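pasting for ref. prot 1 ->
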Amino acid sequence: MDKSLTFTASQHGDPMQHEIEVVRAQLSDLLAEARHNQEILSRHQTLDLQLIGAHSFRELIGHIFVTLAEICELDQVTLSLLNSQHNLQEMLADLKIDSAEFPFLLFVQSETELRLNNKPLRKPVLGAYDKAQHAKLFAPCAEQPISIAVIPLIRQSKLLGSLNVGSSNPDRFVSDMGTDFIERLGSIIAICLENVINSERLTQIGLTDALTNVSNRRHVEQRMLEEIARARRQHYGISCMYLDIDHFKKINDVHGHHGGDEVLKETAKRIKAELRLSDTLGRFGGEEFIVLLVNASHSDAKHVAERIRKSVAEKAFILSMTGLCDVTLSIGIATLSDDHNLGEIENAAQTLLLRADRALYSAKDQGRNRVCESLED
């Protein structure tokens, strides 16, 4: 055998062995890519399940801003929702959700505000961030994205809003990339949004007085138990107001039941305007209302009650069929301080309400259109 040939073979190795090593390397790369894709798929399935499983608006929005951002490794996430009749913001107020709780949640009043490149938003728009086009969508973000995707949220051909996501990587979202996954994500979020909004509204209907659109008696009683328990845990006082429209029977006699209904609705509106988002207003029956003031001292309650009394008494009600109507309120207030928040929650709630009721009757006995306070503790 030629020694030179033997030397060459040993130097360059077996060609078959080399091909096997190349195939092994390719297979290893394919397996690594498959494992990576499986991990991505698993994370996205987890995201889908969390979105679909959200039972409330607050929970769903939390998943969009936190879970979605983490799983998809996004630097910016905002959500724009159409709110043409202010119904959504009213719903959030009823749910005690402050806008400060979700700074990346935006509201727009018409589809025109979501137009990009002068076109209706019907398909995802991907590409470089353009301040003139996209600044409003990412206004709450501390840093501007480099590349963005604006994903329409469409349900049954109706635009609900847009999911706006951004990245500091200029190649993350480019105009010619496929959008199948992004469109699927938009569809899931749109369905989940519609479901939780409808669910929240149905719940609110069951807890809301149909005429005045404030809490009904059942909801007020439930909230009172919850708020007293929370006040006990967090060591602050809670105040209760019992309010009654003076001479309401006379209002009905003079202005009719339709006029009486208008007085009830306007009274509820004026009371609500003087309250914080954390407070609870409910119609307790007939012409009676209850207010729960969270983290409020006796002097706080007295001050708010006087504001409410003046807001009703100092401006006549304008009724649609019978013109002007003067209305006044009698208000009784009672406070449960941290030091006296003891015993069974139910008993504490009943006692607080009874004290406010007694103070209300004192206000009526003293001539109405006034605030009286229970000094018991």
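and prot 2 ->
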Amino acid sequence: MKGKLGFGIALILVLNISSSVAQRISRIDGSKISADVLDQEIPELMRKAQVAGMAIAIFNQNHTVYKRTFGYSNALTKKPLKSTTNIYGASLSKSVFAVLVMKLVEEGKLDLDKPLQEYLPEPIYDYLHLKRWHDDYSTLKNDTLYQKITARMCLDHTSGFPNWRWDLPDQKLKVMRVPGKRYSYSGEGMVYLQVVMEKMFGKSLEQMAAELVFEPLGMNSTAYTFLPAFEKDYAWGHNTKGALYEKDKDNEARSPSTMETTLDDLTLFVEGVLQDKIIDKKTTAQLFTPQIRLRSVQQMGPMSLKDTDAYDGIQLSYGLGFGLLKSPFGWAAFKEGHGDGFQHYMILFPKQKTAVLIMTNSDNGESIFKKLLELTIADKYTPWKWENYTPYPGM
């Protein structure tokens, strides 16, 4: 189903308004902004950049102080986006998985630095693959480098795997560089960790996520697959012209990419991280400790292979499941989400006890992130050029 949206009308709906419309929200630089101002400014940014729908939450003192949804879950039918609307989480899945992994590390069930192959009685390539493709490691039979890959390397994107096997000319998975030596964003790395964990513990990703993260936090509308319960209210992705993408509902559970969630649930997750509800302070500190400095011009694409000193001022780095930067207000941890029709971002400033979560169902979403981050929490440090968040003209 495809449709095209005209954005020349007042399309914004504001939901989940907090109890005090005069509420003042603290930003990381000590300045404040009112909820009323955000309620006015955010819809205008969306209108200019033709963003169909947005869900946003802001956190002060590690608690939610602002939570809103604007616009539509389906701009063609004008169905409003709600805080309970299912939204495809894209790569925000990775940060949730990182917390899950660190819970197992905290419990002594997984060692970050033990080669993952050593946990298995048989070579990974000898196992019968039971999924459509993501647990097929038959092409690693003559690959000796994969045996060096650890959980830490999978979480900090130094596994040496490509982002996806489909990115390679022959579409056959291989280790592209010596593990642990260079950052290279990789969904395959996290899938490999997931598959090893499933074999180690005899549980699926869905089971582990539910037991260790979703249920303890009350994330009752989140899963790594699209569930029948989500049919009643889910967000459609929109391209840059406002046309609808087909909704992908048949993904098998993959740790880096298939999470389905809601604003309400992901707000609980961010609070859970900020308040150490799943993992303790020491483990959270590990999550947010730089593992490798990032010097590439951009995170993805050809420019990821070229280096620059442009980000030395913020000591751009990668932790475990989160990117890291150093600001005058302390270290910050960030994570992007990007898929067809869905563009998301969250950044946490633990020292300031401040964070923001942004989710959009539009390919235009990232074009207003720079402005939105500055407006909401005075974040002027997010490396938007590195993330290829090209601002909408005039923003």
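Residues 1-21 have pLDDT under 50 and may be disordered.
The longest strand covers residues 63-74.
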